[in-house]
Design a protein that fits this description.
103 residues; 6% strand; two-stranded antiparallel sheet; mainly alpha
Length: 103
């Protein structure tokens, strides 16, 4: 249930959070186009997919039980993401956690 809550919450925030802003802008400005700087979008999507699949594989081999191993995996994946985001931001000037929107 916790894993579903995390995935569902993030998906809801992305879909509704971005959708409402873009819909409002388009409605106010009569169909205005919203331009995105999607430089890190592909990398972010791949990282999300790898984290999700890793969690599913570990849950499968753990007989679908959340325990200490799943907690360790979650922390390791999160720390790995933070390291990747920091390296890409510092050395490649690519942001994984923010999509620049030209409103």
């Amino acid at each position: 249930m916790a894993i579903a809550n995390i995935s569902g919450s993030n998906t809801f925030e992305i879909v509704v959070g971005l959708g409402v802003v873009w819909l409002t802008k388009s409605a106010v400005e009569g169909g205005a186009t919203v331009y995105l700087d999607t430089e890190g979008f592909a990398v972010t999507s791949i990282v999300l997919l790898v984290c999700f699949l890793s969690t599913l594989v570990v849950l499968y081999f753990n007989k679908w039980v959340l325990d200490f191993k799943i907690g360790v995996l979650s922390v390791v994946l999160y720390v790995g993401f933070l390291i990747l985001a920091t390296v890409l931001c510092l050395f490649y000037n690519m942001s994984l956690y923010c999509i620049n929107v030209d409103l």
